[in-house]
Amino acid sequence: MAAKVPAFTDIGRATRDLLYGSKSGVFQYNQALNITTRTADGVEFAVTTVKKDDKVEAALKAAYKTKKYGVTGTFGSAGLASTSVSFYQLAPGLDVTLFGTLPDVASAAKVSVDYVVPHLTLKSTVGLTQNPKIDLQATTGYKDFIFGGDATYDTAKQDVTKWATGVGYQRLDYAAGVLLKDNKTLTVAYAHNVDATLAAGAEITKQLEEKEGTSFTLGLQKRLENGSLVKVRLDNKGIASGLYETELKPMHKLALSGQFDATNLDKPPKVGFALDIKN
């Protein structure tokens, strides 16, 4: 294990990225347009519009980041504005971020603290309210193993309202993870890079309080010679999904997605696209 231990949310991340996408390979069953530009002084603006049925949602995001601090503001069509201010390396390994939402600052304000030292990664988020919720995540590692936990304490209820624990194993060509949440849900995830262009993954979830509460999702992705990405996904309910993502020209990416119910072909399929343009 490298000196810097991955965060708790990184356990099973390779599988989630393959099955559901992250910065790329995201299944999109609506119509989405994302335009990102950067000014000469380093301010980045991103406009996102998503059409869901007959409703169009839009958001404008502005971000500026230096080695010492970062500021982000997001303005949505619902009339809410969220902001965050981050301060990096206030002490070795210590980052602090303040969050807020306008106009309801009092109920949404919170502070997040990230602390990373060799063999230990901590993240804590505390609401800046009269009776805040306190979330703490911690991970440590040994060789290729990651061990960690996550717990939320509600000061109003004076009780731990949710918790999770997990273990992960990471190598260059594969990663595995096991997560237990609230003693009710057990998830096992696995992702394997078969070669430089082909990857496969699976996620199995068991609801421990239900006799037949087991679900699974299988996925496969292939990087083509022209750089395009192809994904297929199938779950235990017979829902099949496919994605084709390609770069139309430098900084212009188009993703086409489709989904259908293999157990009910009379059900209309879902089709969507996402166009990302960066200047």
How would you describe the overall organization of this protein?
The chain has about 280 residues and is mainly beta. It has one domain (about 10-279): Porin (Beta Barrel), CATH 2.40.160.10. The protein is built from two helices and 19 strands. It has helices at about 15-20, 105-110, and strands at about 30-40, 45-50, 55-65, 70-75, 80-90, 95-100, 110-115, 120-125, 135-140, 145-155, 160-170, 175-180, 185-195, 200-205, 215-225, 230-235, 240-250, 250-260, 270-279. It has a 19-stranded mixed barrel.
Distance between the termini: 38 Å
How much strand content do the residues show? over 45%
Query: Biggest sheet, open or closed, and with what strands and sense?
Result: 19 strands, mixed, barrel
The number of distinct helices, counting runs of at least 4 residues, comes to 2
Could you name the ranges where pLDDT drops below 50 across 5 or more consecutive residues?
none
Helix-strand string: HEEEEEEHEEEEEEEEEEEEE
Tally of strands: 19
Output the CATH topology.
Porin
Q: Which architecture name does CATH use?
A: Beta Barrel
Report the CATH superfamily: Porin
The helix content is under 10%
Over the alpha carbons, how many angstroms does the gyration radius reach?
Answer: 21 Å
Globular, elongated, flat, extended or rod-shaped: what is the shape?
Answer: globular
Number of domains: 1
* The top level CATH class name: Mainly Beta
Q: What number is the mean pLDDT? A: 94
* Helix-and-strand structural type: mainly beta
> What assembly state would you assign to the polypeptide chains in this entry?
single chain
